[in-house]
Amino acid sequence: MTTATQPESAEPIEEQKWPEENLASTVDQRGGFYPTRLGEMFEDGRFVVTRKLGWGAFSSVWLARDRLNDRHVALKILSAYGSKRTATGQLTESKVLARLASSNPSHRGFPHVLPFLEEFTFESFAGQHVCFVTEPLSFNVPTLRSYLPNKVFPLKLILNLVEDLLKGLEYLHDECGIVHSDLSPSNILLRPFDLDEIIMHQLAEEPSTIYGFPHTVSPKDLPFHPVSSIPLPFFHKSDSGERLHWVITDLGEAQFTDKPLTRIAQSYALRAPEVIMGLEYGPPIDIWSLGCLMYEFIAGQWLFDPKRSDDIPMEIDHLAQITQRTGEHFNEAVLQNYALRKEIKDITGRVILEKFIPHLYCWTEMLENAKARNSHMGLVGSDFIYNKADSQEVEEVIKFIKSCLTLDPAKRISAKEALNNPIFEDS
């Protein structure tokens, strides 16, 4: 085990800038992370921690060996704060994962959602921690993209990815009654082809590392060291003939559809218009996010990038961009109701389109420009993916994206319907 470079600061441990999750934070500070140690055992020695894979707002994720079933697993350990929110029902991930695992394992979308194995809890100095045991996964979308030529996906890879996402969303929506509500590039991961081989190779060739702290910090103030995250890499043999396999993960914000949904959801650039306007919503918001993501994968930039200014609220900027770039107009009654609730004057479809953002240009032109810029896209690892898109193929992709971005959620294409589109026949 190696040690990262030590910071020079000798500030009190509570004031240190932690390199990843803040291990000194408390539940009252929305923290209470458990300082997991390499080699630590859970569940009476059944799970042995071997590597840190990543971390998030309410959890850290660790690679472990399941000695009972002789396999590698991932342990998602919630912070004490995240566990408290789970216990009070504010976070539903525990119930969501249980439903995903049991609803219909034979469904074509089942392999494309996070493979949940089991759950356990333990107590620490910070409080109770919930731990989800899942199958280990590899790179997410941004990490894989960083290895690509020009860091832009070839069209065939995009269609492969989107088809897998649609299968996963079909399972979530139709079989489980669940809205993901936080679909994003970082929540879409690859399933490794040779998991055990990759893990054994990585543990030998790229051992886990810890971050160093100043020598002036007393051991009584720092009885543990923060561990550096190293995600599992992804390898693909060009002559294997196997397509990539994508999985939807991170269901911490997922919601059940058996009751009205109105709270704010989704990251801003991917937020559906019904969410922006505070209307009741459902599974179609995931399809909206998918359409935005598909555009971003092709063009290499966000389709919607709302900004806040002194005279234009961010929500209005966002609605204006949506109007301009989809070519559709909002229902005037819906707009007026939204304006009244938000106490915004002079909001109509014409005002949104002409007054606020008159300089935006058509998103189909943006796609065409991106296609011309990236038409030379070549290889991923080897020659198993090549962008041979022609104008007709790009036009069909544009039509598909527009079907995902229909303003009226009742008319927006469903995951099941989308999977029948011919663009996925050869993906």
Automatic annotation (TrEMBL):
Where are the residues of the annotated region Disordered? 1-21
- The EC designation for this entry is 2.7.11.1
Chain ranges of the Protein kinase domain: 47-424
Q: Which residues bind ATP?
A: K76
Q: Name one Pfam family in it.
A: Pkinase
Listed GO MF terms? ATP binding; protein serine/threonine kinase activity
Q: InterPro entries per the record?
A: Kinase-like_dom_sf, Prot_kinase_dom, Protein_kinase_ATP_BS, SRPK, Tyr_kinase_AS
- Catalytic reactions of this protein: L-seryl-[protein] + ATP = O-phospho-L-seryl-[protein] + ADP + H(+); L-threonyl-[protein] + ATP = O-phospho-L-threonyl-[protein] + ADP + H(+)
The domain of life is Eukaryota
Q: Which UniProt keywords apply?
A: ATP-binding, Kinase, Nucleotide-binding, Serine/threonine-protein kinase, Transferase
An example GO BP is: spliceosomal complex assembly
What Gene3D superfamilies does the record tag this protein with? Phosphorylase Kinase, domain 1 (3.30.200.20), Transferase(Phosphotransferase) domain 1 (1.10.510.10)
The protein's name is non-specific serine/threonine protein kinase
What species is this protein from? Clathrus columnatus
